[in-house]
Structures are given as C-alpha cells and as structure tokens.
Design brief:
The chain contains 19 helices and 13 strands. The chain is an alpha/beta fold and 406 residues long. A hairpin with a 2-residue loop joins strand 3 and strand 4.
Amino acid sequence: MLPRASCRLLEGVRVLDLTRILAGPFATQLLGDYGADVIKVEHPKGDDTRSWGPPFISLDNTTSACYFTAANRSKRSVSLDLKQSMHMQALHKLLEQSDVLVHNFTPRSIARLGLDYGSLSKAYPQLVYCEITGFGSTGPDANLPGYDLIAASLGGLLHITGQSDGPPTKVGVALTDIATGLFAHGAITAALLERERSGLGQKIEASLLESQLSILANVAVNALQASMPGQRHGNSHPSIVPYQVFPTADGYLSLAATTNAQFLHLCELIDRPELAENKRLYGSNDLRVQHRASLVTELQVALDVRTADTWEKLFRTNNAKFAYGRINNVQEAFALEQAQARDMVQTVVTEAGESIPLPGHAVKFSRTPAVTSRAPPGVGQHTEAVLAEAGVDPTVIQAILKSNNL
C-alpha cells in the first residue's frame, strides 16, 4: 500500500482497472470515490462506452459519450495496448505498485494475455484479483461474452418484468451490470480487510449471471421452495395489494399500503372508507390479493378525480401512514427537494475547466465522506504521468505515447 496521507476510507490503496463498459467500471468508480487511486487502463481507442452516444460531452478537449461518465469518475486514464510487449511491460510496472487488479475479460482471453490469476499470484501474492465475467470461470458458458441484457434474459429478470398480458420487458437501466459492480466492490473491500490479517491477496469472481440470480430475492425463493416459475405483474406486486401504480387526472402515482392500518388510512384520505370497512373482501392483505381486480378498480376510480400533485399534497398534509410518490422523469427526480437536500447532484470540473454534472454519492459517511476526486478522464489523459510515477523509462514512455497516436 502507498503511505496513508489522509482519513479517506481507501486512501493508500491502488487499483489497476482493466475493465470496460459498466459492471467493472462501476465497481472501481466506487473504490475511487472512497479514496483509492484508480488507474483505468484502456486501449488507445478508449473504453467501448466512449462511443455509446448520443448524447456526447467534451472531456478535456476530447469527445466522449455521456454514458462513459456514469462509471468513470475518480480515476486516471492510461492508454496501453496489451497486445504489444512494450505496453505489457509497462503494465507490470504498474502491477508492482498495485493492491487490486480488476478485469472483465473472458477467462480464455485473460489467460492468453498472461494476466490470469494463476500467473499473477506467483509474482504478486499480495494482489487482490477481481475477475468480472458474464458467467464465471467454470461451466459450459464460461468463455461466452456477457452483456447485461443477456444475463437478465437467462437469469429470469425479463421473464418477470412487463405487463401480465405483454411480452418480456427489459428494465430501463442496466440493473444486472450495476448489481454485479456493487457485489464486486464490496468483495474487494472485504478481501483488502482480510489481507490485513493474512498478508495475502486472493481471487474474487463476480459474474453477471450469478449476480442476477442472487438479486431475484423473493421470486428466487418462491421458485426454489414452492416451484413457482415467476410471472409478470406489470406495475403491481404479486403478494401485496395495493402496491402499484395508479393513474390520476394528469399522471401516475405509486401507492404502497402494506398493512391493515395503512390500508385504512388510504381509504379514509381518498374518501372511500367503506372499502376498508368491507372485511369480507378487503379485511386482510391475503383477501385484498384474492380480490385484487375489484379493489384496484375501486381505487382507480377514486384516484382519477385529482392530479398526482394534489394527492401528494393531501397525503403529506395528513401525515399519511402509507407510502406514496408520483412518477417523475429522470430530470424531475434529480430536481426533487429531497434529492437536492441529500447532495445527489454534484458538479465536477475537468482539468480543461469544463463543468460536468454527475449523480451524487448514494452512501454518506460521518467521518470519511466519499469524494469525487477527479472528473471522468479523457482517453489516456494521464498516461505519461502515471507511467513516470511507476518508474517506466522515459524513452519507453515516449515510445508508448507515439504508438498510441498511430
């Protein structure tokens, strides 16, 4: 580890980030926010997501898709072509000073580069080595390429997403990628803590398919324990009523009344107390599930007479015991007073003086806050500086820079 210079959570930890697209970069971005020195090693052409636009944005006088900025703040960028021996030698100089390596190559591809765990653990026994793949390192699909959509399809998420009478539906954000990144970042920090005791690194495997299966939660145990294959319920919940989206006079409102007391208060505030008083049909949650169709129809008729904003104000004024929230678009979501109060929009400035708004930090720490230490970098923006820090010969650095520009 590097010498500790401040009280940031992972200050002194160096992470060599060989990942691309979303799952891996999201994991390493979190490590960077927590104080680790994250070196993003990317091909001279750049991470795939730099071209996944529109929309596009300027990053230190280079154009990049906004997508790239979602998972690459708090990093420095080094451009290396790992198929060139000179570049690979430079990578090993970086490895000598690294605590963590993260990659998302297939097992076969990483072995072909000589960067598999079996090879590196001999030279760098202290290295925490995290491999993020589509399907893991064993099994018949181990060397297949992995993408969020495919893992979500194979892993059951699309089967349970969408309207009950409609086709399987992709979730609006790459949830499987994000979950994998979260699992990986947590595992890396746990392995670093264990290394404090053992002095040894270890291999961590995180895959899109396994992450997807792990986050199926109640749907997973229903399948395993009750032989229920899962089904689509649209915007409603299979086991709780009411817990869904309702149309109003001008938009949509989500309501969640999960107990009898919450249901009673909902009925009172929408001027339909007789619904809660009907104990034969709606006296308990299981009865409300059984009579879902009739109850939802009654609630829709009641809610359709006012706007979503009017209902929200009414519920807030009367300290509603149930949960509620109108459906916002993404711009409206970040503009919420609560989101603003929790600093969920931050502005970072690139070295070229460009201001970029980004999502804030989801987790707050009382003593050692997460900090966006750097704006998302341009391709290879820090190659010369980082390689010089690692002790790479200046003539070699210039040769690498020249080859990157060819």
